[in-house]
TrEMBL record:
Superkingdom of the organism of origin: Bacteria
Species assigned in the record: Leifsonia shinshuensis
Every SDH C-terminal domain range: 262-287
Name of the top EC class for this enzyme: oxidoreductase
GO CC terms in record: cytosol
Domain Shikimate dehydrogenase substrate binding N-terminal: start-end pairs: 12-102
Record pathway: Metabolic intermediate biosynthesis; chorismate biosynthesis; chorismate from D-erythrose 4-phosphate and phosphoenolpyruvate: step 4/7
Protein's name in the database: Shikimate dehydrogenase
Length: 297
């Protein structure tokens, strides 16, 4: 295959990023398109031996710009902290205070958030007629913020964010309300989930797990499976494993489900488009993702 046009150098900054599937997703799609594209994971703990995070972010951004990187993807625990190191941030990323893609060009650092668009496209493709009347999001961290913004942008009329740290949930809801005056958003403690999901007068229509519960490192389910009803759609952002305990319980209860693979592919595809200007083949990326999961990567 002949390589045409510009070349691209990209990195992924975060903790424990070496096994991430995002670099091979980008590189394979670039190969398919005949682009010269290298994508390297940069483990936060390997820089400065795990020193102060803000200093490390600054060092990596400076180094990446100096070495001619086109972009960095940013992941846990840097998505919020990286904002202080940027020249410009898109309105959508600034609104949730979280950036997962930094474009480096013309001496400037511009932050974007493709977790928001990635979840939006996954929901559109995977559950196209999902009722967004009242959606409960569990987890108010970076993923919860991205999912919540995507749901409100997609037209959710009522959003409840539940987090063990109820203050964090309340702060996220309060930060979203001004952008979506037609919707209502509130933050609660997970203790009230039983009452919320049992309320038939203003029924919850959809549920998204945006906490890390269900990951292979944090096995389990973030709510009592007995609360799941067949008229509820259920999505998970966790994708290691793709088939989480929550999704299995939801299917057993008769719910329609959406796994975290769609968002993982969507965020990668949107970042690829921002970095290269080329339109990725999302189906091809989805198939590659599924194959890597199948291989146990
Ligand atoms: P985070 O640590 O910033 O936030 C997680 C939040 O969940 C915390 O506020 C925590 O208090 C809350 N929480 C934990 N257990 C809970 C429970 N039982 N009930 C209610 N709240 C609970 O983490 P994050 O960066 O937001 O990531 C969360 C998950 O999302 C991770 O598993 C990550 O891999 C996944 N993620 C997936 C994608 C994707 O593309 N599919 C993208 C981003 C993140």
């Amino acid at each position: 295959m002949s390589v045409v046009g510009e070349s691209y150098l990209v990195g992924l900054l975060g903790e424990g990023v070496l096994p991430s599937l995002t670099p091979p997703l980008h590189e394979r799609e670039a190969d398919e398109q005949g682009l010269r594209y290298l994508y390297r994971p940069i483990d936060l703990l390997a820089v400065d031996g795990g020193g102060e995070v803000d200093a490390t972010i600054a060092r990596v951004l400076d180094g990446a710009a100096l070495l001619g990187f086109n972009a960095l993807n940013i992941t846990h625990p840097c998505k919020q902290r990286v904002l202080a190191h940027l020249d410009e941030v898109t309105a959508s990323a600034a609104a949730i205070g979280s950036v997962n893609t930094v474009l480096l060009a013309d001496g400037r650092r511009v932050g974007h958030n493709t977790d928001v668009t990635g979840f939006a496209s996954a929901l559109r493709d995977g559950l196209p007629d999902a009722d967004l009347g009242h959606v409960v999001v569990i987890g108010a961290g970076g993923a919860g913020a991205a999912v919540s913004a995507a749901l409100l942008e997609a037209g959710a009329s009522r959003l409840t964010v539940a987090d063990l740290d109820a203050e964090r949930a309340g702060a996220l809801a309060a930060s979203l309300v001004p952008r979506f005056p037609a919707a209502t958003a509130s933050g609660v403690s997970p203790d009230v989930l039983a009452d919320l999901l049992g309320d038939t007068t203003r029924p919850v229509t959809g549920l998204v797990n945006a906490s890390f519960v269900g990951m292979h490192t944090h096995p389990g389910i973030p709510l009592d499976a007995g609360l799941l009803r067949p008229d509820l759609w259920v999505a998970d952002v966790v994708y290691r494993p793709v088939d989480t305990e929550l999704l299995r319980a939801a299917r057993a209860a008769g719910c329609r489900t959406l796994d975290g693979g769609g968002m993982a592919v969507g965020q990668a595809a949107d970042a690829f488009r921002l970095i290269t200007g080329a339109e990725p083949d999302r189906e091809r990326m989805r198939a590659h993702f599924a194959a890597m999961i199948q291989e146990g990567r």
